[in-house]
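Sequence decides. Consider this:

===
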Amino acid sequence: MEAVSMEQAIKIYLDNRAKTDSLFAETYKKANKSIKECCKYIYSQAKKLAKGGNAVGVDDATVYGWAVHYYDEDNIKVKDMKERVEVVAPTTVQEPVVQEPVKEEKPVKQKSARKKTKQELQKIFDSRQLSLFDM
């Protein structure tokens, strides 16, 4: 599998989104926006999420949501950030994964339910017993 930079992964996602979403395609063309700045915005959002920590894991949907938000909003100011990022390429870039055949597992035998004692059965019977006076 070929390594993909964060900028490349974000660009691929946004390019594909612009092809299928005409509204986003227009905001994606903004001259004052760039993939580099978009990634800096994503870094800053992840840094906030880490709350001063050194690392944070963020799911793809959240990261791509931040990228779209960056292009949607005109008033986002981005500071220079130097961060190390590890990226898993979107499925459109990755090679197909060959799955190994699944081994059949033997069914697990479940223990039978504990038998109720005579006292427990009597309580159940008594609680269900109708009285002529209850009618």
User: Anything to note?
Assistant: The two ends are 76 Å apart (CA to CA). Confidence is low (pLDDT under 50) at residues 93-97. The longest helix spans residues 35-50.
